[in-house]
Amino acid sequence: MTTKKWGGRRLVGILVLATLALGAGLYWFQPWKLWQDDTVREALPAAAPAGPSPASAAPRTVAEGTFISHEHTTTGTVRLIRLPDGSHALRLEDLDTSNGPDLRVLITDAPVKEGTAGWRVFDDGKHVSLGKLKGNKGDQNYEIPAAVNPAEYSSVSVWCDRFDVSFGAAVLKAV
User: Fold this and answer.
1) Confidence of residue 18 (pLDDT cuts 50, 70, 90)
2) Spatial distance between the Cα atoms of 109 and 150, rounded to a whole number of angstroms
3) Where's the DM13 domain (predicted)?
4) Which of 21, 114, 13 is nearest to 70 (CA)?
């Protein structure tokens, strides 16, 4: 009788631990996001015109790049835009990447490298998080804080903060 009692308690303990481990794993990895897409369609950012001429009222692209894939297939383009009031915004266009837990948009001074050598470099040097990725597909804008000099950053990464890995990145080239 004692052996049955210990066997039952052991089984209950194993089931409780397995349930806790499964719950923690689901929270950490969020596998359901692999089948969910969040599409965002934001218009090109605009600001109040700085001068009286209509030419000064148009946002101007100062740098741009094309995404390469890292941990997950990522395509689309990125544009650094100077707004008429002198502020800057980062625009992701035609973005298509996997959804994931805790995705961010980073501007960095790290070089964009092909393959696994480029997966983990974007938080090593100078970088600024522009916020959570609004959607894994579509067009979206991110305000660059006034205290940030965009000329000090040469790349953009769709960064998974939970696992410290780049889903995809682009070199910003002046136009």
Assistant:
1) confident
2) 10
3) 65-173
4) 114
